[in-house]
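Can't paste images in this forum, so I'm doing it all in text. The chain is below; anyone willing to post the predicted C-alpha cells underneath?
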Amino acid sequence: MIKTNKLSQASIHVFFWLFTIGSLLPFLLIFMVSISDESSIESNGYSLIPSKISFAAYEFLFFNFSEITKAYGITIFCTIIGTMLSLLITTLMAYPLSRVNLPFRRSLAFYIFFTMLFSGGMVPWYMTFVNLLPMKNSMLAMIIPGMLLSAFNILLMRTFFTNSIPESVIESATIDGASEIQIFSKIVIPLSLPIMATIGLFTTLAYWNDWYNCMLFIDKPALYNIQYLMTKTLTNIQYLIMKSNSSAQAGELLAKMPRETVRMALAIVGIGPLLLAYPFFQKYYISGITSGAVKG
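Text version of the structure:
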C-alpha cells in the first residue's frame, strides 16, 4: 500500500514537472528566436538552440532608448494607478451587494449582470471620453476607460465577501460600536487579500496589455505606452515588407533589418515585467479565484 502511494505521488510529480516544462518551452523558444541571427532563422527556421546568436533585434528596438523608457514609464504609471483605482471602486461596489440588509440588493445585482450581456456600443463610448469628458491626448484616457467597472469582477468579489466573511464577525463589530467604514477598512479588506490579489492580477494584465485605448485617444508620440509603441513598430516593419517589391530603397533597408527576431523580441519586451510580477500574486491567486467562484 505504501509503495502504491509513493508510486502515485511520483507519477503526479512527474506529470506536473512535464506539464511545467511544456508550458515554459514556448517562452524559451520565443526568447531563443529573439537572440538568433536573422539569416539563420531564414535558413533553418525556429530552433531552441540558435546556430548563431545575435542581439540585432534588441539593438533595433532599443535604438531610441529614451523613447522606450518613456513608453515603459507611461505603461507602469497607468497600470499602477488604474489597478489601484479599479480595485477600490470594485470593492466599494461589491461589498454593499454582499450585505443581506442592502435595499434593492437583487435589483442592483441584476443591473450589473445585465451589463455583461449588452453595452452601449463603440460610438457612444468614444464620444463620452472625447466630447463629454475631454480626455483625448491625456494619460487619463488610458486609465479611466479601463477603470470602468467590470461586472464579472464585481460579482466575483461579491461572492467572495458572501462566502468567506462570516456575518457574525460584522455583527460583532457593529455591536462593539464600529462604523461601516471601520468594518470595511479594518475587517473586510484584511480578510479579502486573496480575492483582491486575484482581481488585481486580472486588472494589471488588462492595463499592461492595453494598446487599443492608446490608439483611439492618443495622437502624440510622447504619450504612447509600450504596447502601442511595439504595435506601431511591428506595423512599420510589415509596411516595409509590403513595399519592398515596389521600392528598391525599401528592399535594401529591409534586407538589413531583423524581422522575425524582432517579432519575438517584441513579445519578450512586452511580457517580461509581468513574468517577474506574477510570483508576488501567486500566493493569493488560487485561493482567491476558487473562493470567489463558489455560488452563494
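Residues 65-98 form the longest helix (34 residues). The radius of gyration is 25 Å.
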